[in-house]
Amino acid sequence: MLYRTILLLVLALGLSCKKKESGPEAKEIPYPEGLSTQYVSVNTVSRKYLVYRPAGVIQAKSLVMVLHGGGGAGLTVADPGTHPLSVFRQVADTAKCILVYPEGSPDIQGNPGWNDCRGDDDAGSRGDDMTFLVQLFAKLSGELGLTSASMFLTGTSNGAVMTLSYALQQPQTIRAIGISAGNLPLNPEPGPCSTGSSLPLPIMITYGTADPAMPAGGGCVANLGGACNRGRVVSQQATIGYWLQRNKLTGVTPQTNTFDINTNDAGNVEKRTYPGTHPLVHYVLFNAGHAVPSRSVFSATTSASGAQNRDIEFAVEVWQFFRGFL
């Protein structure tokens, strides 16, 4: 039933991949059909990632890399029905695209997360995650015969902040990004995190207006104990403002569309589209919290995460955004 629901959503939006008109010669995919566990050595450290190859796909036309959040979920986000990020697998089955779920490095509690650009994140991961992702994208590009024009990056929470960090440092290696619940660091690490690229990059963002973990107005991340040891971020609005400026959309009036498909969830949604060569799409999830929005995979309301929005399917909306650049 779940698969049929997602399949109908994907088909209704016409989300099939378009054939590339130019680029390197496509290669036969060197990974088995279905979900497989793979490893790559990064500075002598073995790093794990999952590859999902839909049945019947012989040559890759595009690739989406999906970054899990922090806090312990790790690669279980790829298990069907357990997390909204798993819905990317159903989308890929129809879109015939390759998915990759990399695993982050351990934080101080041993949970997989991402060493993003937060300079004051004392409890977070310390692995060389940027090198891992750069090396992994390069490896997959060579194996699949893809260029940056058909490679995309998305993530949630800590994975969303890592996606933003990657966009600061390696935007030339991907075509667009999509995030859920991730703000820019208030105190970024010195170097590329502070002086990152100004290269425009299309971006899609979903934000819950009542997010307690990645605070809408900025501040301490996941500050349950009050120690603020996960670092601080700027506000959602400041993050949006940065991307409007970077994508040369300042002053552009957004096209808006409001809807409320599930009247039993936290609130309605306003989709704000800033059109341009490098567009920004912002989903305002009124009264929603930190959980990835989903119509098919439920996330319970907690004091740490708030209420989930059930009006949009994040994976479907992200792919609809990405496919416009193929």
Question: Outline of this structure?
Answer:
The model is unreliable at 10-23 (pLDDT under 50). The longest helix is centred in the middle third of the chain and has 16 residues, at 129-144.
Indicate the topology:
Elements: H1 2-13, E1 34-42, E2 45-53, E3 63-67, H2 87-95, E4 98-102, E5 105-106, E6 112-113, H3 129-144, E7 151-156, H4 158-169, E8 176-180, E9 203-208, E10 219-220, E11 232-233, H5 236-246, E12 255-259, E13 269-274, E14 280-285, H6 314-323
Parallel strand pairs: 3-4, 3-7, 7-8, 8-9, 9-14
Antiparallel strand pairs: 1-2, 2-4, 5-6, 10-11, 12-13, 13-14
Structure description:
Helix 1 crosses helix 2 (87-95). Strands 1-2-4-3-7-8-9-14-13-12 form a 10-stranded mixed sheet, with helices on both faces. It has a two-stranded antiparallel sheet with strand order 5-6. A two-stranded antiparallel ribbon has the order 10-11. It is of the alpha/beta class and 326 residues long. The protein has a single domain, classed as Rossmann fold (3-Layer(aba) Sandwich), CATH 3.40.50. The chain has helices at 2-13, 87-95, 129-144, 158-169, 236-246, 314-323; strands at residues 34-42, 45-53, 63-67, 98-102, 105-106, 112-113, 151-156, 176-180, 203-208, 219-220, 232-233, 255-259, 269-274, 280-285. A hairpin with a 2-residue loop joins strand 1 (34-42) and strand 2.
